[in-house]
Design brief:
Length: 98
């Protein structure tokens, strides 16, 4: 089953399912610790006790010469949108630019 951080879950599904909640204690999170998690939306990240991403995923964006960084969910969504427009131009697709 796919697991998502709080931000990706809210972005994709409109609510947080708490996939990573409770991976560390609130006490450790307040001391600055985070749990390592693999989010299906943004990759390897650190999360707090509530499952919220506390580190920014760093994936090079090949469309900007590898300088600009975006998370993998946004890169995938933008690439998918371009592919759909190219292969199915007659279908009215909703814009999902991030």
């Amino acid at each position: 089953m796919a697991d998502y951080c709080k931000q990706c879950s809210e972005t994709m599904f409109g609510k947080d399912f708490g996939d990573f909640a409770g991976m560390i204690t609130e006490e450790k999170a307040k001391k600055g610790f985070g749990a390592i998690a693999l989010c299906e939306g943004c990759g390897n990240i650190l999360v707090n006790h509530g499952g919220k991403r506390i580190s920014e995923p760093e994936i090079k964006d090949p469309t900007s010469g590898g300088v600009k960084r975006k998370d993998s969910f946004h890169l995938f969504a933008n690439a998918r949108e371009e592919w759909m427009k190219k292969n199915f131009p007659e279908t009215p697709w909703v814009e999902h630019r991030f």
